[in-house]
TrEMBL record:
It is found in: Cytoplasm. It comes from the Bacteria. Residues 1-123 form the PTS EIIA type-4 domain. The keyword Signal does not apply. It comes from Streptococcus oriscaviae. Keywords: Cytoplasm, Kinase, Phosphotransferase system, Sugar transport, Transferase, Transport. This is PTS sugar transporter subunit IIA. PROSITE patterns: PTS_EIIA_TYPE_4. Transmembrane segments: none annotated.
């Protein structure tokens, strides 16, 4: 199974993990690392290194392209060329939910591409959505998760 590591600014990583568990229940082989005030980039990197399993493929999901969680995760991946580690930025709940289930059946590289698309497709605005086919938004939102 592919290991998931979620790394983000503030308490976003642990917060989004609690959202995932609310929807999907307890998820195994997933770690949340919060990059909180006062932590150095090196401390974040060491925390990531400490949770990564050397026997598995690892998918690191980060919040911002170019942010410290992303940069140190990419550095760590580059420093470990013998291990399969991919880093994706732009973390959102749709991406994390899909990652938690799809990693059970999907191959690593196609999963990475799929998650980027899932994240992009999950960003919509209500004006465009409502203009697509109904005068009432009720049809779009009949069921929640």
């Amino acid at each position: 199974m592919i290991q998931l590591v979620v790394v983000a600014h503030g308490k976003f990583a642990s917060g989004i993990l609690t959202s995932l568990e609310l929807i999907a229940g307890q998820v195994e082989k997933i770690e949340a690392i919060d990059f909180i005030e006062g932590m150095s980039a090196q401390e974040v990197k060491e925390r990531i290194k400490s949770v990564i399993s050397s026997e598995e493929e690892v998918l690191v999901l980060t919040d911002l392209l170019g942010g410290t969680p992303f940069k140190v995760s990419v550095e760590l991946a580059a420093e470990n060329p013998d291990q399969t580690i991919a880093v994706i930025s732009g973390l959102n709940l749709a991406m994390l939910l899909d990652a938690s289930f799809s990693r059970l059946t999907d191959e690593f590289e196609p999963l990475v591409s799929k998650l980027v698309n899932v994240a992009k497709e999950g960003v919509v605005d209500s004006i465009s959505l409502l203009e697509q086919g109904s005068t009432s938004g009720e049809e779009c939102f009949t069921d929640g998760i």
